[in-house]
Amino acid sequence: MGSRSCRCSGEARTPPGDRDLLRNCQRAWRTPVRSANQQVTIDVQETTAACRDAFAELASPTCIHDPYPFMRWLREHDPVHRAASGLFLLSRHADISWAFKATGDAFRGPAPGELARYFPRAARSLSLNLLASTLAMKDPPTHTRLRRLISRDFTMRQIDNLRPSIARIVAARLDDMAPALERGEAVDLHREFALTLPMLVFAELFGMPQDDIFGLAAGIGGILEGLSPHASDSQLAAADAASAKVKAYFSCLIQRKRTDPRHDIVSMLVGAHDDDADTLSDTELISMLWGMLLGGFATTAATIDHAVLAMLAYPQQRHWLQGDAVVVKAFVEEVLRYDAPAMFSSIPRIAQRDIELGGTVIPKNADVRVLIASGNRDPDAFADPDRFDPARFYGTSPGMSTDGKIMLSFGHGIHFCLGAQLARVQLAESLPRIQDRFPTLALAEQPPREPSAFLRTFRALPVRLHTQGS
Amino acid sequence: MRVMVDQDLCGTSGQCVLTLPGTFRQRELDGVAEVCVATVPQALHAAVRLAASQCPVAAIRVIESDAAMASAPAPTLRLLQRTPSGMPRKTNTI
């Protein structure tokens, strides 16, 4: 296993001695021992050297299958990890939540003139250029100006107003799945429901025909992979081809909304742009639409998948989906904590000064990423973190545990996920209905994982109805 | 007790509105949070302190009472105590 995993990106440049060290280190964290309660724990070798590149390790088949043992190893042995590429990766809850809150202060986004420094391939990549103009890469006051333009469509009241139409889409999707399930056939819940629901909601928000969103959606996974810090040149090229299609589509949609404005986000943004290009430039408009498309549904789909899997894996916890909104909310938050869809932050946080964290100095101008999924499983924040337990979030403010710890999946600070509440409402409207409609739902086969280090999701989630005697 | 939202800082996440919908609301125009009560009733004091401590951008300021303003503990104190040791601490508390 150790030698196979050395295909990771650092190998070609790694001197032979270091390569042995790398193998040893990987063997060290991958040697599982069984503890008394039969949970897999990691053989703790205090002398173990730091892992060479956590991003490469997260892309290994072992981590695609289950990244949490490696994340535990990182938290315990290398919590302020410096990857071979020079990126830093924080894996402890306290450090991650601090970095989130310090964004805009101790950390900033890359300045426009520095893009090439943090994204060496930016000059020839459309995707990286689009990324550079998204909200997530901006600092105040630009960030504040752009965020407030779209915030009015994401207020809690606006999202609440969408509930009836989300509920309608949920019911219609479940109706569509019912005949095949009732005939005893397997249905791919990932494609038929988890992906389709957020796509249809997105189409409604953007005022797009449904067919158009299905056409665009096919390229989203490829774009997300291309944006990963370790994407190959060919992955980036594929991302750029897909981004070019998205860009062309949105240019066309903008023209349509300009001549025929409706009550949707695109019409509103086009109006803001046409009123005053200082408020929203051409580049910012396209980047913002592109960014919302990327963030809009792959993450929600992954979380719906994980929620359904949690329903099936922990039947004793299903009562959380039978109660009122407070009870359902606790289940949704625990799903989000237990399986963060975005494993690490996709945008650079640039250190504004030398920052000492846990004895490691992060030098000024370093690109710092946070391993969100690891922070969510940090026992210092969530007791017995590998146990799925919605009670952690019962009766609390959204995203806060009963101990006042932050569930990190939506981030925190100025870049707190714009669509957080929209995602929560989609989950809350879906899960009780799925359970109600298909109480005997079961896995038809083990769902295949998407081999992505960044987005923890599935290629398919085949389900069927469990019948007597089967 | 009085509570204020620093509207320059507000990140429009709406978390305070979800926590205490009767105390906070979002402006229709841009999603910025505002306070919709003049004073906070006693029964909600703890909840308002919690909402302040949980604001993603620490934009909520709690004024326990006019007399205590100078010495009142900062509403974000609980969060600050959790910053990793040795880290520079934020100073923008009241």
From TrEMBL, chain A:
Pfam families: p450 (PF00067)
Annotated PROSITE patterns: CYTOCHROME_P450
UniProt cofactor(s): heme
Gene3D superfamilies cross-referenced by the UniProt entry: Cytochrome P450
InterPro entries associated with the record: Cyt_P450, Cyt_P450_B, Cyt_P450_CS, Cyt_P450_sf
GO MF term set: heme binding; iron ion binding; monooxygenase activity; oxidoreductase activity, acting on paired donors, with incorporation or reduction of molecular oxygen
Keyword Oxidoreductase among UniProt keywords: yes
Keywords, ordered alphabetically: Heme, Iron, Metal-binding, Monooxygenase, Oxidoreductase
Keyword Nucleotide-binding set for record: no
Described purpose of this protein according to its UniProt entry: Cytochromes P450 are a group of heme-thiolate monooxygenases. They oxidize a variety of structurally unrelated compounds, including steroids, fatty acids, and xenobiotics.
UniProt record similarity statement: Belongs to the cytochrome P450 family.
Protein name (Swiss-Prot/TrEMBL): Cytochrome P450
From TrEMBL, chain B:
Record keywords: Electron transport, Iron, Iron-sulfur, Metal-binding, Transport
GO MF entry, a single one: electron transfer activity
InterPro entries, sorted: 3Fe4S_ferredoxin (IPR001080), Fe-S_cluster_ET (IPR051269)
Gene3D superfamilies: 3.30.70.20
Role description: Ferredoxins are iron-sulfur proteins that transfer electrons in a wide variety of metabolic reactions.
Name used for this protein in its record: Ferredoxin
Species lineage: Bacteria, Pseudomonadati, Pseudomonadota, Alphaproteobacteria, Hyphomicrobiales
